[in-house]
Amino acid sequence: MDFSTKLVQFECAPGDDFRPTSTPIYQSATFEQESATEFGAYDYSRSGNPTRDVLQRQLADLDNGIAGFAFASGMAATTCMSALVPAGSRILIGADIYGGTYRFMERIARLQGIEVDHVDTTDLGAVAEALKPETALMFMESPTNPMLQISDIRAIASLTRKNGTKLALDATLMSPYLMRPLDLGADIAMHSATKAISGHADHMAGALVVRESELAERIAFIQNAQGTALSPFECFLLLRGSKTLALRMEQQQRNAAELAAWLRASGLTERVIYPGFEDHAGHDIHCAQASGFGPVISILAGSRERACAIVEQTRLFHTTVSFGSLTSTISLPYNMSHASIPEEVRKTKQFTPDLVRLSVGIESVHDLRADLERVLLALPQKVAH
Ligand SMILES: *Cc1c(COP(=O)(O)O)cnc(C)c1O
User: Fold this and answer.
1) Alpha-carbon distance 254 to 265, whole Å?
2) Of the candidates 106, 115, 293, 98, the residue with the CA atom closest to the CA atom of residue 206
3) Cβ atoms of residues 151 and 122 within 8 Å
4) CA-closest residue to ligand 1 atom 6
5) Nearest CA to ligand 1 atom 2
6) Is the CB of 328 under 6 A from ligand 1?
7) Average pLDDT of each block of 10 consecutive residues along the chain (385 residues)?
8) HSE toward the beta carbon, residue 192, CA cutoff 13 A
9) From the alpha carbon of 193, which atom of ligand 1 is closest?
10) CA max distance for the chain
């Protein structure tokens, strides 16, 4: 089945005699045993819940994996993943990575006795050098957020495989509709489902999907032991939101492509960063590993003051962290989502305070463009430096 069919055609209530056409919320912490010595399919919702099982099966199918796991948030998924790595070994992370991931690795994983290395994943030579014999896990993003840097995932997967390192790819920015990490050779697909998979910004969730049973068993054990699984109600919300993933992403991408082209042609900002531009570094690599460019556009406003004015004065682009929702949002990553990265590190990433990130929603593109145009035309002229 094609992806958009899979999104809506799945077994939504296996074993339910009433044959509902939407997955019921099994809002129960406990399930009664058959007898003192016989267990049923479920006993305790931390270990397993029928609503969560339907979602987890669906997450696995969407990413072409054998098992999927739903967590309370993207960071809960990352927390679980870090427990796969034994103390005394190393995790290699991409240099341009989500701020919360950076903070977790530097401030929590290190407490677990794990060494953390950083590498520019756009440089394959650097990746080969950074993979040490003790590197148990590599964790990266492509495109990165918010700089939208592209790395060759298949080439990196062959390096990690040779080194005996598990590769985890955070595909949050693309969603499984546009990019399926396991098909590209990654061992673990990771998503903050809070973003595009849910699409409605009405709950948090995270996902891990794997293609090997050994990894699946270890993750199931850790998910139960740490108690990080997604609640039944939120599993329902995520299933419900995910059904329109293809429709939403199509409209959001179309809007983003049109706005990016217009923004660049207008010359009203210093630079427009969008992986759909043919001259975007790594554009061809991206096209070979994803089926679209996603809803995010980054712009360099020219100064922090101009960036703040854009963020504050747009009306349809709401000032919020996060992205991928069906409503357009705008943010200043330097001060918002990536503030947890130390200033010296942010600076080394050409990651400047004038960077504005737009996440384009499903609204009419004419309204979105008019909103941006009004604000950009009213900005004070740039002062020559
Ligand atoms: C938001 C995000 C996360 C963290 O997910 P939460 O659901 O916020 O915990 C991880 N990676 C990326 C790329 C993200 O955008």
Assistant:
1) 17
2) 98
3) yes
4) 74
5) 192
6) no
7) 97 96 98 92 96 98 98 98 98 94 96 97 98 98 95 98 98 98 98 98 98 98 98 98 98 98 96 98 98 97 94 96 95 80 70 92 98 94 56
8) 20
9) 7
10) 80
- What is the rounded distance in angstroms from the CA atom of residue 189 to the CA atom of residue 210? 6
DSSP state letters, 172-197? TTTHHHH--GGGGT-SEEEEETTTTT
Pull the structure tokens for residue 292.
């679209």
Count Cα atoms within 13 angstroms, Cβ side, for 213.
Answer: 0
Q: How far apart are CA 336 and CA 338, in angstroms?
A: 6
Question: Distance between CA 352 and CA 341 in Å, rounded?
Answer: 13
CB 274 within 8 A of CB 356: no
- 337: CA distance to ligand 1 center in Å? 9
pTM greater than the 0.90 cutoff: yes
Whole-number Å distance, alpha carbon 206 to ligand 1 midpoint, is 8
Please list the active-site residues.
46, 98, 170, 195
Residue 331 Cβ contacting ligand 1 at under 6 Å:
no
Q: Mapping DSSP to helix (H, G, I), strand (E, B) and coil, where does residue 40 land?
A: coil
Distance CA 42, CA 37 (A): 14
Ligand 1 in reach of 96 Cβ (< 6 A): no
CA of 204 to the centre of ligand 1 (A): 9
